[in-house]
Amino acid sequence: MKVFRHDTNERNKSNVLKLRMKLGAAGYGIYMMLLERLASEPMLRAELDYDVLAYDFHESPDLIRQVVEDFDLFIINLENDTFSNEDLINQQSCKAKCARQEKLLDEYISQCLSDPKWVNSLVTAHRSSPERIRALVKQTFREKVLSNLSSLPANPSSLNFCGILNSVIASTFKQ
């Protein structure tokens, strides 16, 4: 995203006002710099590495952490150690949003498939091979999720993918 919009009244939004009350104009400047940084990222999310951000912004890591964590201005994903901003995500075009959601889903599927315990439990439950389970999850599960959901949240692991996955696998092995 080369350009992002913000309200002309951004500084007076409740959470931003609380930020300004506690951290002043410096806190607001860091907030806007974080939005710029997120907007320049392909997936509109950045790593929660306060030392790197502090170096980039010439501020202290603790001040960056306060802006990110203390004012409900960002969506924090502790599983992936990343953060994003809902307003930026909402500005994406439909096509870009769909591509982003599909990439997040693919990352979630890869994460599941890289867990041998999870794969082996499915192999045992359905008396199948790990290869068949992996192929089924990569193709059928992805298509089923994308066809049943109009949109995915910023954090796909928060959805009940397990329920959808179990029904896909069960219906496949009944055939």
What is the topology?
Blueprint: H1 14-40, E1 45-47, H2 50-57, H3 61-69, E2 75-77, E3 82-84, H4 86-91, H5 94-113, H6 116-126, H7 130-148, H8 161-174
Helix pairs in contact: 1-3, 2-3, 5-7, 7-8
Describe this structure in words.
- The chain has 175 residues and is mostly helical.
- The protein has 2 domains: 10-90, Orthogonal Bundle (Arc Repressor Mutant, subunit A); 93-174.
- It is 65% helix and 5% strand.
- It is built from 8 helices and 3 strands, in the order H-E-H-H-E-E-H-H-H-H-H.
- It has helices spanning 14-40, 50-57, 61-69, 86-91, 94-113, 116-126, 130-148, 161-174; strands spanning 45-47, 75-77, 82-84.
- The protein has a 3-stranded antiparallel beta sheet.
- A hairpin with a 4-residue loop joins strand 2 and strand 3.
- Helix 1 packs across helix 3 (61-69) and helix 7 crosses helix 8 (161-174).
- The chain starts with 13 loop residues before the first helix and ends with a helix.
